[in-house]
Recover the amino acids of this structure.
């Protein structure tokens, strides 16, 4: 089924693809860890971590696109905080509880200390890696959200602090892309690219948007190919720069194409994007459960490696989608309704098609 992309369905679809890339690389790593040999199909997705690069650029775009009008409008802060809090924390805390339960039942895993648990629950951006391992990206997100909240309160102060943050983060590009922590990391620069894309789209029409979209995908694919064939290592500057530029161009092309009514997105892809947060947060849990089921059914010893990869990948992605439909979105809606009943916000969010 095709639906006309009038609510940034293309952005949702892109978010879904990014989540699947992360699932693919972690599925590849899981099979390789258990067998110690290259995984057919899986090695095509060595670049799958680039889904995170796309997420960071996209996050910068979405925050500016949805909340740009709130800058220097202190009365809008409660609405902003409500949207960001409910988008991130309720489902994240559920995943934390599931993870803690699994760690408690495991005979080999190390249970996190009370300090690490507390810092992980609030996604403190410095000093500790969350025990939900993939949540390291959320530490970057929360810090970005806080700085944008200051922009809402005071444009000059917020812009100054954000400029200092980006400048400090840019310095780490030279030291190594993966160096630093959530406070100062080259990854933070990708929010700036997303902010720039939103600023440009709010001020002018983008010529040849479909061509720009194809160009962005092409740059992304070339960077992925360079990494996959081993010309440069994944943590180095070149591939991440390619992913950042490719993601930015693709976002510009997607949004402008949708504004002009020139892009049609399969409803399934838009739905996948709506589940991307759940897929990202829970895919390692679903992957582990699927693997244990395969072991108990003795499938792991009879199936070829490529079949392992496809089955585990499908289970991880599908499990995340099911959890999104049954838990993530119902809980998010429930919490938002409770907050609004007790503390009404200034006005509802615009019909922007993203959350």
């Amino acid at each position: 089924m095709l639906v006309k992309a009038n609510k940034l369905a293309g952005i949702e679809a892109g978010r879904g693809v990014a989540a699947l890339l992360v699932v693919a690389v972690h599925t590849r790593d899981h099979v390789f860890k258990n067998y110690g040999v290259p995984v057919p199909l899986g090695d095509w997705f060595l670049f799958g971590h680039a889904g995170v690069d796309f997420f960071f650029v996209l996050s910068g775009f979405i925050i500016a696109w949805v909340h740009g009008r709130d800058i220097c409008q202190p009365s809008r802060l409660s609405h902003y905080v409500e949207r960001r809090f409910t988008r991130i924390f309720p489902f994240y805390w559920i995943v934390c509880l599931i993870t803690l339960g699994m760690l408690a039942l495991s005979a080999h895993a190390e249970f996190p200390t009370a300090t690490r648990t507390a810092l992980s629950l609030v996604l403190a951006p410095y000093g500790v890696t969350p025990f939900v391992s993939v949540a390291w990206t959320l530490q970057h997100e929360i810090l970005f959200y806080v700085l944008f909240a200051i922009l809402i309160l005071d444009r000059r102060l917020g812009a100054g602090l954000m400029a200092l943050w980006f400048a400090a983060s840019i310095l780490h590009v030279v030291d190594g892309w993966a160096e630093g922590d959530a406070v100062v990391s080259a990854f933070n620069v990708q929010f700036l690219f997303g902010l720039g894309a939103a600023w440009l789209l709010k001020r002018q029409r983008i010529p040849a948007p479909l061509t720009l979209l194809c160009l962005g995908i092409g740059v992304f694919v070339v960077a992925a190919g360079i990494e996959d064939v081993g010309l440069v290592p994944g943590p180095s500057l070149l591939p991440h720069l390619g992913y950042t530029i490719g993601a930015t161009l693709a976002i510009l092309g997607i949004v402008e194409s949708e504004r002009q009514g020139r892009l049609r997105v399969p409803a399934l892809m838009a739905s996948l994007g709506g589940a991307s947060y759940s897929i990202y947060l829970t895919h390692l849990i679903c992957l582990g459960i699927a693997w244990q089921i395969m072991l108990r059914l003795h499938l792991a010893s009879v199936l070829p490696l490529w079949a392992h990869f496809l089955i585990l990948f499908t289970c991880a992605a599908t499990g995340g989608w099911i959890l999104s439909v049954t838990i993530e979105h119902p809980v998010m809606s429930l919490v938002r309704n409770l907050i609004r009943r007790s503390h009404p916000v200034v006005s509802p969010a615009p019909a922007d098609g993203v959350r």
About this structure: The CA atoms of residues 124 and 261 lie 41 Å apart. Residues 2-342 form one domain.
